[in-house]
Amino acid sequence: MTARSLFDKVWDSHIVTPESDDHPAILYVDLHLIHEVTSPQAFDVLREKGLRVRRTDLSLATLDHSIPTVPIKTFKDLELVSEPAAAKQVVQMDKNCKDFGIELRNFASAERGIVHVIAPELGATQPGKTIVCGDSHTSTHGAFGALAFGIGTTEVGHVLATQCLLQRKPKTLAINLNGALKPGVAAKDIILKTIGEIGVDGGTGYVIEYRGTAIERLSMEERMTICNMSIEAGARAGMIAPDDVTYSYMADRPLAPKGSAWDKALKVWRNLPSDDGAKFDRSVTIDVGDLKPMITFGTNPGMVVPIDQALPKTGDAAFAKALRYMQLEAGKPVLGQPVDVVFIGSCTNGRLSDLQAAASILDGRKVAAGVRLLVVPGSAPVKKAAEALGLDKIVRAAGGEWREPGCSMCIAMNGDKVAPGKLAVSTSNRNFEGRQGSGARTILASPLTAAAAAVTGSVTDPRKLMN
Amino acid sequence: MEPVKIIRSKTVVMPFEDIDTDQIIPARFLTTTTKTGLGTKLFNDWRYAADGSPKPDFVLNTSAAKDAAILVGGRNFGCGSSREHAPWALVDFGIRAVVSTAIADIFRNNSLKNGLVPVLVDSATHEWLLGNPGAEVTVDLEKRLLKLPGGREVTFPIDGFSRYCLLNGLDQMGFLLESEAKIKAFEEARA
Fold first, then answer.
1. Alpha helices, DSSP H, located in B118-159
2. ipTM reported for the complex, 2 dp
């Protein structure tokens, strides 16, 4: 039999009808994640056509993008703190879920949070599944060996109504990451380095499989950070073969299989990793043994340098345009650049280990004068677990804000934003112009690097603050 | 949906690479629960000053954009967020085709479902288009041709099914709904 890749196996097992010249494949979807921003118009289409949601049991809904990160208990609270349009969207989401019979992890739910944090936490994300969401960071779930990708609102409607999507088979890209990370270097640095290497459109048309010794050593949370940013290299999906790290993370999660069903699932999952000799359309190898903490300097995640390196002296028109926006100088280091805001959170770096990494720098230190530090746990369970470890006290004692879960300042739809012209060091995934607020300037970095910037007030190598 | 067959227009050119969907429609406008009216917010932060006044040197505020239905963008147009609000905003503004050497996957998929034709061209054609803003060109979807002034024609790739749906003004969901028996059989076989 032909050697197949992880992607091939998941793809093949979800084909309702294969693709032909006349039409794309019909791909079955095992899990549909839904949030308030990209679903309202899809529910309206169902209403117009008189359709129901075909599989409410395969739908998982929450509030994350436009929800405030101050405590909210009721819709009345929401109206007091949210912009009217954002509040209306949340109310509409509640109505849509009620009307169509979907359970919503609402602001009162102990399970709510960023959709890409809660689905793995609940055990809904599983190896071999197809997972989609009206959000490009759905690639996160590929860390479990799932085929997970972002879709638009029209396709959200397709999945709601039929549990299927029309898809052309993408190409495959193997990214081999080898070596052992040095202290102070994080999964975020690996993926920023990778995007810098292959470019922000290097993955367009491909599904990535991350493999190699560096990947095998990573925890599930670190693997999620890697897969999360696949889309920043243009790839709709990034996958990692499931292994014992995956299974021990999943065991006993509320929605994971139990007892004999677990044993049966495990047998299937163990057959998912790419066969020896599986063909990829393209391969890239990157050694991360000498990797340093990475920071972005421009206006897309591919404009990235090691933290202690000066910016290139010259570049193309895009380079010059980006530096103008960022108010940075060619040929000079970014190190030491004064910082106004530090954001720690998001579906990229809002999990417990991320908050622990940040707290390890903040512990016993103070946020520098004039710097705002916002720490936003990725979900209610992350917040609870962090508080059990006293991380909230460390953040508050340092002078930082400890918030309720949500996407927050990553996308700046909920009132949490960076003011025009201000410079933020952020653990999120996009440094596009205005992403964190109109006119805001963003440097992407790991939680360690972000926390180091918070306590020194400038872009700082976190290794200088580690014992 | 209106059928799309021929788009004949002058071009409006935005030569920058990696134009992301956060620029096309900034996130703060995504609190809408409808698809309409986003054209006024298209490229909002490039288009308007902080006080809301139009920036006179931005191309969409100039006569070059008046009645232009074909946007020529730099490589990797539409990267980033999956927001379908990006093609909704472009279409609401009057754009019917986007031309580039590379168009991001999710944006391309979303465009095909909203009557916005993604036109991929080779570097030489792209260079010519970037250097000749306002050129009168034709996108012939039936023939998969981009027709340039002086009779030059280049073919562009487009998924056959999406092209069929665009030419006939069909909603792709219909095809999935008609496949219900096959979907049901698939579910039963796996159970």
1. 123-131
2. 0.97
